[in-house]
């Protein structure tokens, strides 16, 4: 063990490359990374407990909002004479960028550890070690599969003694996360995101079995969760630094077995202690069937929910194993959230076997007319490493794009399993965005918001974020941010470095023209909102989607008195779950 005064741990959440080969980076990104917060919380806990012979100094960098200065990082580690760089929460689309960062660090002999969904998903679902992971290990990179709770101290000791192993694989030993150190990011890092919002995961694991999902194969199907006391610690630590707005990253908070206890605690913190908590969370389409769930969520501070609608074609949902999505429940569920002034945004997947540009156009028009949905975002059905879909294609030897950078749900990466060519699939995806975000429909969304008591600024902000990012930046909204940054030296290594004058001239022009487009959209939507809000009668606005009762494509589910019993409803949800979690 080398003599040293402190042990630097530099955590980097890598971004990925855009279609021109430049790193996607913003002055402010949209959501701070919870993976980064979780690992930072674990390292800081070890630092507080002095687990090494010297102090641990930890820095957290999110590449989506901060330029990674590799020379500086290398110098810091060399000055200290020890330490490592952790590449955090690396998704498949971020793996090529992560490797480009790691390559330079390894060339300077800096120890590098890579964790996250690509490593875990691949090791969990594919045979042996896949070539890109082997190549990483051949570079001297340590791979970490599984979760780091309960393992950070051992890892730090190995790093300190220079005995890091090539692979740590804890996939078969998922930790109980109750009472583990909680996710946390310091205020100066949170300030690098739009709005003062931070994130945490209250639980992991989802009981359902969607075939396109990687989560269940990495984090399992059992609900593992933080206690209400842990959640209170997160809230108080962030409140102390002036942050009360959260994105709860659980894939499905409605299936967190302690949801009620957690909501009760949040309600207490709001109503008794005056902490003005607000949060966004992800839930499933049966959540309104859980007694008190929506009432308590709203009282606890929920102001936005994300729902994986995925499709309105029951055959597609069945084929994807999404048996819990009953399309005849969608309207009631959305109306129930609106009754509590909660904004509903949903994800819709393009590329199921029956999809064509025509069916997508038709289906999106049906959604616009019949569902009281605020924001809809589209994803391309992608065989993500770690999912059952990917495993099946892999085993069958079906072509999948070898460039992992494209696995961002914004690119077509394999042939369609139905009738579409790859070009038609891309077209269908674009058709979906263009059909939903028309000026007329944004006006309708504003009118519905007015009637539901939702502030216009939320609808405008979210329409600009989702539609603006896709049309103006040509990026998926979940890769979005405010004020794009681009450096000439941050291009994929296999692409040439551009001429400096041309690069800067083009970038300046793009920045001006993109902002002009966004300001134009803002002015247009703002004017619509002004016109609607100045007319008092618009509070009574009703259309097919916002009126209770059945519609042509979304008949309300008629339940007999006995079928409304909570036990019967719970059984319905249970039936859609994986056998081992029932
Ligand atoms: C919240 C979330 C987001 C947020 C923010 C990202 C974030 N990380 O917080 C937003 C909405 C921005 C987002 C966007 C995207 N996401 Co996302 N996201 C999630 C989600 C739901 C939770 C992430 C999380 O907090 N997990 C909890 C943390 C603690 O788990 P973890 O990251 O695995 O980290 C643990 C271990 O892996 C390990 N570990 C991780 N890194 C390291 C490093 C070291 C050194 C060590 C020792 C340990 C270690 O320790 C951690 C603690 O135990 C996950 C699904 C999931 N359940 O994880 C999808 C998920 C990660 N996202 C995914 C995808 C595809 C995307 C997008 C590309 C696509 C999209 N358009 O949705 C974009 C990419 C944009 C971006 N810049 O990230 C996929 C990735 C699959 C894959 N094979 O790559 C996932 C798995 C969901 C899915 N569809 O399957 N996402
Ligand atoms: S509902 Fe489906 S897609 Fe969502 S986390 Fe559960 S299994 Fe995955």
Name the strands of the widest sheet in spatial order. 3-1-4-5-6-7
* Major sheet details: 6 strands, parallel
Proportion in β-strands = 5-15%
The share of residues in helices is: 40-55%
Mean pLDDT across all residues, rounded?
92
Count the helices. How many?
Answer: 20
Please state the CA-atom Rg, rounded to the nearest Å.
Answer: 24 Å
Instruction: Report low-confidence residues grouped into runs of 5 or more.
Output: 557-569
What ligands can be seen in this structure? Answer: cobalamin, iron/sulfur cluster
What structural category do the secondary elements indicate? alpha/beta
What multimeric state do the chains show?
A: single chain
N-to-C CA distance? 50 Å
How many extended strands?
16
Instruction: Give the CA-based shape.
Output: globular
Which short descriptors sum up this protein?
single chain; 582 residues; alpha/beta; six-stranded parallel sheet; 20 helices; 41% helix; globular; binds cobalamin; binds iron/sulfur cluster
